[in-house]
Amino acid sequence: MANYFNTLSLREQLTQLGKCRFMDSSEFADGVTALKGKKIVIVGCGAQGLNQGLNMRDSGLDISYALRPAAIKEQRQSYKNAKENNFTVGTYEELIPTADLVINLTPDKQHTNVVSTVMPLMKKGATLSYSHGFNIVEEGMQVREDLTVIMVAPKSPGSEVREEYKRGFGVPTLIAVHPENDPEGKGLEQAKAYAAGTGGDKAGVLESSFVAEVKSDLMGEQTILCGLLQTGSILSFNKMVEKGVDEAYASKLIQYGWETITEGLKQGGITNMMDRLSNPAKIKAFDLAEELKVIMRPLFQKHMDDIMSGHFSKTMMEDWDNGDKNLLDWRAATGETAFEKTPAGDMEISEQEYYDNGVLMVAFVKSGVELAYETMTESGIIGESAYYESLHETPLIANTIARKKLFEMNRVISDTAEYGCYLFDHACKPLLTDFMKQVDTEIIGKHFGEGKDTGVDNVRLIAVNKAIREHDVEVVGARLRASMTAMKPIG
Ligand SMILES: NC(=O)C1=CN([C@@H]2O[C@H](COP(=O)(O)OP(=O)(O)OC[C@H]3O[C@@H](n4cnc5c(N)ncnc54)[C@H](OP(=O)(O)O)[C@@H]3O)[C@@H](O)[C@H]2O)C=CC1
Ligand SMILES: CC[C@](O)(C(C)=O)C(=O)O
Ligand SMILES: [Mg+2]
Ligand SMILES: [Mg+2]
């Protein structure tokens, strides 16, 4: 199998990368109709499998789970997830031959194996679906010509897919039809119905391509969403301890700080997150973010280049073949960091204190979101996609760190995201050595400018505010957030 993206002409690569249309809510007027009464079998019942299945069943669809024999025999977690929620569970042989839609929600690493096993059992004219296009785009999986291949990719961890649905809403979702596999022209209607079944239509759906989803998803998760949150956590914690801040306080400030400050991001973008700081702190965070952007830009660009060329997927797949050596070493090293090993204290930290004492964290978030967005859009990924993969998803990942630190984040995200997160982190920390030497508790651990005059130069403040507000991620984000709010009452 060859990397599918690399087999395309440059023109076709650019066309597929740039495919991104924000769909109007009226396009979902038929709801789940195209899948109503169809037999839908989900392979795998993990983070996405369970939560998508629960939503689709609540939306009136017929869902069952096909699991590998060992999972059923040993009653593994996937079996328990499905059974405890009263779903029918069976083997591939029992469930796949009668399925109209088979949804592959196993880890990306397993896709070639799973799809090769499942495909011969699928009935003529059925549909195969993915929630991430790695197997099609990076591994070049060839699917039987009579089968339709679609993708419905929620831009969120599985837990939030369910939580948002229960709130009568959903998470933004990318849908796509693989151009090589749409023999009956039914792919788009089915993908729309599936997105409606998960609640994604209420939050915003982009009609995209497998290529655009893969290249943007990999970039977001490696850099701002997971990699930089990991690097920022470790470096910020170590610095506070080095400077004598109480360890338990430092641990708490980081563990819950990302969630608190990115709540500001979720509600009103970088503008609102920065507005939560005092004027002098805002200018300081702005300057730090500018400095960080200069230092980290080449690393962000390297990640994007390696994702585009297929170098990233090639080296990750080599690690798969090598028994996951790098992944397991990196996972163990993360578990040994002082941040991971130091429990958060039970002292009170007010919401505002997380901002005031976490100016460096705000600067990490601002620089990472903007860099990820800029690097993606410079590479042909459309702004809306880049927004979902940078600003929109950062608070959702920050929530996982609040639950159980970096361990929880890396547990909840997919296997490709975990690998890419460590890869970025290990390259980024050394790059920031000199920058971190100048960092003191004024910007991490203590209240910025406490007791000092809060006056600032008006001209500078106006220029800083203008630069923050006019960044493209803010312009695109304001539009997307407005449409999400507009759609919310429909649920
Ligand atoms: N994690 C996330 O939040 C997101 C994931 N995605 C995508 O969703 C897909 C699923 O990822 P995710 O939910 O993280 O996966 P998980 O690791 O959470 O779930 C894996 C499921 O697959 C089963 N499984 C594992 N290995 C095999 C195998 N060899 N054969 C058959 N079944 C197997 C497991 O069951 P058992 O081991 O018991 O057999 C388990 O039920 C991926 O394509 C991912 O990129 C997309 C958006 C976000
Ligand atoms: C951020 C990681 C992710 O891409 C996701 C939850 O969207 C993943 O692959 O887990
Ligand atoms: Mg993702
Ligand atoms: Mg991903």
From TrEMBL:
SUPFAM superfamilies, per the entry = 6-phosphogluconate dehydrogenase C-terminal domain-like, NAD(P)-binding Rossmann-fold domains
- Please provide, alphabetically and separated by semicolons, the GO molecular function terms listed in this UniProt record: ketol-acid reductoisomerase activity
Q: List positions binding Mg(2+) 1.
A: D217, E221
Which gene is transcribed and translated to give this protein? ilvC
Its cofactor is: Mg(2+)
Q: Which family does it belong to?
A: Belongs to the ketol-acid reductoisomerase family.
Q: Where does Mg(2+) 2 bind?
A: D217, E389, E393
Q: Where does NADP(+) bind?
A: C45, G46, A47, Q48, R68, R76, S78, D108, K109, Q110, G158
Q: Relate the protein's function as given in its record.
A: Involved in the biosynthesis of branched-chain amino acids (BCAA). Catalyzes an alkyl-migration followed by a ketol-acid reduction of (S)-2-acetolactate (S2AL) to yield (R)-2,3-dihydroxy-isovalerate. In the isomerase reaction, S2AL is rearranged via a Mg-dependent methyl migration to produce 3-hydroxy-3-methyl-2-ketobutyrate (HMKB). In the reductase reaction, this 2-ketoacid undergoes a metal-dependent reduction by NADPH to yield (R)-2,3-dihydroxy-isovalerate.
Species whose genome carries this gene? Flagellimonas abyssi
E.C. number: 1.1.1.86
Q: Where is the signal peptide, in residue numbers? A: none
The active site lies at H132
Protein name per the record: Ketol-acid reductoisomerase (NADP(+))
Kindly name one Pfam family recorded for this protein: KARI_N
Its annotated pathway reads: Amino-acid biosynthesis; L-isoleucine biosynthesis; L-isoleucine from 2-oxobutanoate: step 2/4; Amino-acid biosynthesis; L-valine biosynthesis; L-valine from pyruvate: step 2/4
Binding-site residues for substrate, renumbered to this chain? S278, S414
List residues of the KARI C-terminal knotted domain.
209-353, 354-487
Q: Per the record's keyword annotation, is Magnesium included, yes or no?
A: yes
Keyword DNA-binding among UniProt keywords: no
How are cofactors bound according to the entry's free-text note?
Binds 2 magnesium ions per subunit.
Keywords for this entry? Amino-acid biosynthesis, Branched-chain amino acid biosynthesis, Magnesium, Metal-binding, NADP, Oxidoreductase
Under catalytic activity, the entry for this protein gives: (2R,3R)-2,3-dihydroxy-3-methylpentanoate + NADP(+) = (S)-2-ethyl-2-hydroxy-3-oxobutanoate + NADPH + H(+); (2R)-2,3-dihydroxy-3-methylbutanoate + NADP(+) = (2S)-2-acetolactate + NADPH + H(+)
Q: KARI N-terminal Rossmann domain location, by residue?
A: 15-208
